[in-house]
C-alpha cells in the first residue's frame, strides 16, 4: 500500500458517510478518489435531527448556502435546548442551554457572578434564562439571524429531516465527483491489520488504500473485521433504547429550539421541522419495557389513541478504543455514540474528519500523528460524556428508581468529580474549567447553565446582602438585542423564496 492513499472507500451512506464523503472530497479533491458503498436494503438509522452550531461550519466549509439546503431538508434554526422537568427545585422547572453568541460576553460574567454569590448563600438571581439572548429568541420564536453589518457573531445550529439531509449530501457529493456504489458488503479482507478490500454480494471486490467505516452501530470494518475494542459507557449512562413518533407541526408557529422533557425513565425530545415535529423517548431498558416507554411517550404527546406507528431503536453507548486503526477510520455510530441529549453525534463526525485531515497532512500515516489524533478524539468523547452524565447526576427528581439511581451514580470521571466538588464548595468554576482545559468541549457558560439550571444551590441565608448585578439591567439589554432578530417563520419563508 502506498504511503499516500489515492483511493478512499467509505462503507455506509448514512449522515456520517455522506458528511465524510463531502469533506474528504472537498479537502483532497485533486489527490484522491472517494467512493461510498451502501446497501439500500439495510438502510440508515434515520434519526439524528438536531445539531450543534458546528453543522453551520460544515455547510460553510462546503460553500453550501442555507437557502440551498434548508428548504430541501425541511430544516429550521436552533438556538439551543430547553430542559423541562429535570428538577423539582422551586423556580427551576425548566432552563435553557443556549448556543454561544458574542453577546454572551456582556451578560455571562454577570450570570457567573450571581451564581457564585448564590452558591455563597446570597439572595442573587441565578437562573440562567434571563442572562442569555438565545433563550429570549426561543421564547419569542425569533430566528438567530442578523444582517451582515451586525457586529456580533450569533451561533446557532439546525433541526432537519435525517433522510432528506442524507439525500442532499449524497447529491452534493456525487456532484463533486464522489463515486456511489449500491452494494451489500458481505466480507472485509484484512492482511496484517490492514484492510485490502471489501467483498460485495456476488463476490465483487472493492479495493482501496484507506477505508472509512460508517456502517452504523455494527461497525462492519473497525469493530467486526479489525477487532478494535469498544469502550462502553453503560456504567455512566443508563439509557440504551429509544422510541420515536412524529407529530404534525405546531400550528401556532415553529419553535427555534429543541425541547428535552424528563419523563419517568428518561427524557423525550421535541424537534421542530417545517414539515412535522420529531419526537422520541430515550430511556433505559433496565427500568422500562418497550411497551411501557411507548405508552408513556404517547401519553406525553396526547397520542394514546393515535394509529401512527412508533419506531423502536437500540443504542450502543460508548466509543471505539481507537477511531483510526491501521488504514481504517471509524466514524458516526460505528465510532461511538453518546446518547443524544445534547445532539453531539454529527458534531463529532465533523471534528473527527477535520482532525484526521489535519493529522494526515501533518504526518501521513506516521504512528505519532495517529496516536495523537486518537487521544484527542477519545478525550472529546469523554469530555462530552461527562457533561451529559452531569445532567443525570444532578437531576432533582425523586419520582422513580431511574432518577434516584442516576442521582446516586458513583461512576464519575475524576474530571467530573472535580467540577461538581468545585461547584458545591463554592470555588471559581471558570478557574476549574481552565485548570482542566476542557472549555473546548463545554464552555463555562454551558457548565454554569447546567449546574444553576437545576437549582443546585444551598438555601439562601436570611439577611445576606443582594449581589451587585441588577437583573432588570440584564433584562433591558437582552430585550434590546432581541429587537434585531426576525420572526423564525418569516426567516424560513424567506429561505423558500430565494
Ligand atoms: C435515538 C437517537 C437519536 C439521535 N439524535 C441525534 C441528534 O439529535 N443529533 C445528532 O447529531 N445525532 C443524533 N443521533 C445520532 C445520529 O443518528 C447518527 O450519528 C447519524 O445518523 C449518523 O449515523 P451513521 O451514518 O453513522 O449510521 P447509519 O445511519 O446507521 O448508516 C449506516 C450505513 O451503513 C450502511 N451499511 C451497514 N452495513 C452495510 C453493509 N454490510 N453493506 C453495505 N452497507 C452497509 C447502511 O446501509 C447505511 O447506509 C441519534 C441517534 C439515535 C439512536
Give the number of helices.
16
Helix content: 25-40%
Which of globular, elongated, flat, extended, rod-shaped describes the shape? globular
Ligand kinds = flavin-adenine dinucleotide
Report the sheet-strand fraction: 15-25%
Contiguous runs where pLDDT drops below 50 for at least 5 residues: none
The strand order across the widest sheet is 5-4-14-15-16-13-17
Largest sheet, in brief, is: 7 strands, mixed
Structural class label? alpha+beta
Overall pLDDT score: 95
Radius of gyration: 23 Å
Number of beta-strand segments: 21
Distance between the termini: 48 Å
Describe this entry's structure for a reader.
- Helix content is 37%, strand content 19%.
- It is globular.
- The model has no long low-confidence stretch (mean pLDDT 95).
- A 7-stranded mixed beta sheet has the order 5-4-14-15-16-13-17. It has a 6-stranded mixed beta sheet with strand order 7-2-1-11-20-19. A 3-stranded antiparallel beta sheet has the order 8-9-10.
- A hairpin with a 2-residue loop joins strand 8 and strand 9.
- With 498 residues, it is an alpha+beta fold.
- The site of flavin-adenine dinucleotide has 39 residues, from helix 1, strand 2, strand 16 and helix 9.
Tell me the layout of helices and strands.
Elements: E1 7-11, H1 15-27, E2 33-38, H2 54-61, H3 66-69, E3 76-78, E4 80-84, E5 94-98, H4 104-119, H5 133-139, E6 157-159, H6 162-175, E7 179-182, E8 185-191, E9 194-200, E10 205-207, E11 210-213, H7 220-225, E12 230-232, E13 241-244, E14 258-263, E15 266-272, E16 277-283, H8 290-301, E17 311-314, E18 318-320, E19 324-325, E20 328-330, E21 336-337, H9 345-363, H10 367-393, H11 401-407, H12 414-424, H13 429-436, H14 444-453, H15 471-482, H16 488-497
Helix pairs in contact: 1-6, 1-9, 9-10, 12-13
The protein binds flavin-adenine dinucleotide.
Amino acid at each position: 500500500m502506498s504511503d499516500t492513499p489515492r483511493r478512499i472507500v467509505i462503507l455506509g451512506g448514512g449522515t456520517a458517510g455522506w458528511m465524510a464523503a463531502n469533506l474528504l472530497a472537498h479537502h483532497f479533491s485533486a489527490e484522491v478518489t472517494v467512493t461510498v458503498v451502501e446497501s439500500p436494503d439495510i438502510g440508515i438509522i434515520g434519526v439524528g435531527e438536531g445539531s450543534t452550531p458546528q453543522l453551520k461550519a460544515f455547510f460553510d466549509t462546503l460553500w453550501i448556502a442555507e437557502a440551498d439546503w434548508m428548504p430541501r431538508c425541511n430544516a429550521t434554526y436552533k438556538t439551543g435546548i430547553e430542559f423541562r422537568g429535570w428538577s423539582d427545585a422551586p423556580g427551576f422547572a425548566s432552563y435553557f442551554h443556549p448556543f454561544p453568541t458574542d453577546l454572551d460576553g456582556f451578560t455571562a460574567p454577570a450570570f457567573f457572578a450571581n451564581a457564585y454569590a448564590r452558591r455563597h448563600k446570597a439572595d442573587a438571581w441565578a437562573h440562567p434564562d434571563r442572562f442569555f439572548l438565545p433563550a429570549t429568541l426561543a421564547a419569542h420564536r425569533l430566528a438567530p439571524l442578523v444582517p451582515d453589518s451586525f457586529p456580533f457573531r450569533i451561533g446557532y445550529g439546525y433541526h432537519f429531516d435525517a433522510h432528506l439531509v442524507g439525500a442532499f449530501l449524497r447529491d452534493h457529493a456525487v456532484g463533486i465527483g464522489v463515486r456511489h456504489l449500491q452494494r451489500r458488503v458481505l466480507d472485509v479482507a484484512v492482511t496484517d491489520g490492514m484492510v485490502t478490500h471489501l467483498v460485495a454480494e456476488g463476490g465483487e471486490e472493492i479495493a482501496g488504500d484507506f477505508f472509512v467505516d460508517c456502517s452504523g452501530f455494527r461497525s462492519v470494518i473497525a469493530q467486526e473485521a479489525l477487532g478494535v475494542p469498544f469502550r462502553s459507557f453503560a456504567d455512566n449512562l443508563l439509557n440504551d433504547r429509544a422510541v420515536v413518533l412524529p407529530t404534525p407541526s405546531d400550528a401556532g408557529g415553529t419553535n427555534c429550539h429543541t425541547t428535552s422533557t424528563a419523563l419517568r425513565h428518561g427524557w423525550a425530545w421535541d424537534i421542530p421541522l417545517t414539515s412535522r415535529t420529531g419526537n422520541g423517548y430515550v430511556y433505559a431498558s433496565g427500568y422500562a419495557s418497550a411497551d411501557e416507554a411507548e405508552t408513556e411517550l404517547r401519553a406525553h404527546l396526547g397520542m394514546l389513541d393515535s394509529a401512527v406507528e412508533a419506531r423502536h431503536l437500540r443504542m450502543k453507548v460508548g466509543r471505539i478504543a481507537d477511531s483510526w486503526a491501521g488504514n481504517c477510520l471509524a466514524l458516526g455510530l460505528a465510532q461511538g455514540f453518546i446518547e443524544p441529549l445534547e445532539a453531539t453525534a454529527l458534531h463529532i463526525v465533523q471534528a473527527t474528519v477535520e482532525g484526521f485531515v489535519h493529522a494526515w497532512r501533518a504526518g501521513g500515516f506516521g504512528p505519532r500523528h495517529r496516536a495523537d489524533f486518537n487521544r484527542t478524539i477519545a478525550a472529546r468523547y469523554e469530555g462530552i460524556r461527562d457533561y451529559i452524565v452531569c445532567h443525570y447526576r444532578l437531576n432533582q427528581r425523586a419520582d422513580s428508581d431511574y432518577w434516584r439511581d442516576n442521582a446516586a451514580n458513583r461512576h464519575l470521571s475524576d474530571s467530573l468529580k472535580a467540577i461538581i466538588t468545585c461547584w458545591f464548595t463554592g470555588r471559581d468554576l471558570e478557574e476549574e474549567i481552565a485548570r482542566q482545559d476542557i472549555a473546548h468541549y463545554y464552555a463555562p457558560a454551558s457548565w454554569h447553565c447546567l449546574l444553576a439550571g437545576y437549582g443546585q444551590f444551598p438555601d439562601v441565608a436570611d439577611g445576606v446582602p443582594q449581589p451587585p448585578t441588577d437583573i432588570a439591567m440584564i433584562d433591558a439589554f437582552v430585550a434590546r438585542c432581541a429587537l434585531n432578530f426576525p420572526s423564525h417563520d418569516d426567516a424560513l419563508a424567506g429561505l423558500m423564496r430565494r
